[in-house]
């Protein structure tokens, strides 16, 4: 935890955070905060430490903010996919709440061209991602794993430094529904995205969650788009994937709630680029004193972001994915001193810093998954951020024929690592 009781406040790289901006947009309530009174980086979970210690740490930071004259302090920011890693939360100096309809017109700069992309690189590349899907499916036959979420990063280099405010304005204009966020992180980068998925909201003594699992890409014509949505609604593969998420969330939430309402069948929701199977869950916490952040940490990561069963799926992810997710696939949002607030899952997002942008997308893998289709799904999900950046990734990701041939020859010559199976 980094605290700055007086003088100019800095992030861990020494950058001034007096002007740091945090924004979280939702149909329920929007937040815009500026400045950093205190950073919180303590992991939400750690070996040998009770989860309650993290919650007490957050509450103490909120109380310190109140003692410094911040009348209604909140904690805002992002938690990682792995809650054993440091969080990136801030106690802002100023906070403004408003309704989405009262949001000022999107910045006039939304039509301004953003910096050109100089390169784009997928980690893993397509062939390795598809191999990872095959490896995951093989594990389903020899273990208790029934679903795992495999993801990829797309690293994009830009010709000039990007303006995060301009990118966020474009993202808002293109994605007017869902949960849009712009969060300064403790290391100076900005996490920007438009997530369709609510992990948890707490308001007036009730909690709400809206998990998504099962997806299909939107189509250009109304007739095709309608057909795709109906195919998704009746897809055995996607309904099975969705049921794993809902059943596990219901199991966990029943231990936290005195009342819980879970619809018997999913419905459809859409974004600008995707259709999703959706189930809206509502409940009353058994312990009214538990904050939305504390409750959200109990739910995260759900099978929608990790897999089922959670611990085995997490192990498989660590074997298959060639990178650490960090804040990707985590949760982003806010919580006030009274325990109310809202947290969305950190998907359809990117980390932005100067001339570098790192984008994230994942796909839920079950026994009936097709490696080519899962790769295509990640491509479709990346479009949310690529469209906001104004980047056509197809030419950016292409290499010359000679480069592709050389790469393929190199891969053929290298011995393949043996697949590991979790039993």
Automatic annotation (TrEMBL):
EC main group: isomerase
Any one GO molecular function term: isochorismate synthase activity
SUPFAM superfamilies, alphabetized: ADC synthase (SSF56322)
Region of interest called Disordered, as start-end residue ranges on this chain: 397-423
Compositionally biased residues, Low complexity: 401-423
Pfam families for this protein: Chorismate_bind
NCBIfam families in UniProt: isochor_syn
Protein name per its UniProtKB record: isochorismate synthase
Organism from which the protein derives: Undibacterium curvum
Lineage of origin: Bacteria, Pseudomonadati, Pseudomonadota, Betaproteobacteria, Burkholderiales
């Amino acid at each position: 935890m980094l605290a700055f009781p007086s003088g100019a406040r800095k992030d861990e790289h020494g950058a001034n955070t007096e002007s740091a901006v945090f924004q979280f947009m939702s149909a329920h309530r929007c937040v815009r905060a500026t400045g950093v009174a205190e950073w919180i980086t303590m992991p939400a979970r750690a070996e040998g430490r009770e989860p309650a210690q993290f919650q007490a740490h957050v509450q103490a930071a909120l109380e310190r903010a109140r003692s410094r004259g911040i009348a209604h302090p909140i904690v805002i920011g992002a938690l990682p996919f792995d809650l054993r890693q440091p969080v990136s939360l801030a106690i802002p100096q100023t906070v403004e709440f408003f309704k989405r309809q009262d949001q000022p017109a999107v910045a006039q700069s939304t039509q301004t061209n953003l910096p050109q992309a100089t390169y784009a690189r997928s980690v893993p590349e397509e062939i390795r991602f598809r191999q990872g899907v095959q490896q995951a499916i093989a594990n389903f036959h020899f273990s208790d794993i029934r679903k795992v979420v495999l993801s990829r990063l797309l690293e994009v280099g830009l010709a000039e430094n990007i303006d995060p405010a301009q990118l966020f304005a474009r993202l808002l204009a293109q994605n007017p529904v869902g949960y849009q966020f712009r969060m300064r992180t403790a290391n100076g980068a900005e996490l920007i995205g438009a997530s369709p998925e609510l992990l948890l909201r707490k308001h007036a003594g009730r909690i709400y969650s809206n998990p998504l699992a099962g997806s299909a890409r939107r189509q250009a014509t109304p007739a095709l788009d309608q057909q795709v949505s109906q195919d998704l609604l009746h897809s055995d593969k996607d309904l099975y994937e969705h049921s794993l998420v809902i059943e596990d969330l219901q199991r966990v939430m029943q231990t936290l709630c005195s009342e819980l309402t879970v619809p018997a069948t999913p419905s459809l929701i859409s974004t600008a680029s995707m259709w999703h199977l959706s189930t809206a869950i509502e409940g009353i916490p058994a312990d009214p004193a538990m904050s939305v952040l504390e409750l959200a940490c109990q739910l995260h990561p759900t099978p929608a972001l990790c897999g089922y069963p959670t611990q085995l799926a997490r192990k498989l992810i660590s074997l298959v994915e060639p990178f650490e997710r960090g804040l990707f696939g985590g949760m982003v949002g806010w919580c006030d001193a009274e325990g109310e607030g809202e947290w969305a899952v950190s998907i359809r997002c990117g980390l932005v810093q100067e001339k570098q942008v790192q984008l994230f997308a994942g796909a839920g893998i079950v026994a009936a998954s097709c490696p080519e289709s899962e790769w295509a799904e990640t491509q479709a999900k990346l479009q949310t951020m690529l469209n906001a950046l104004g980047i056509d990734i197809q030419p950016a990701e292409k290499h010359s024929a000679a480069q592709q041939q050389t790469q393929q020859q190199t891969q053929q010559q290298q011995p393949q690592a043996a697949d590991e199976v979790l039993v």
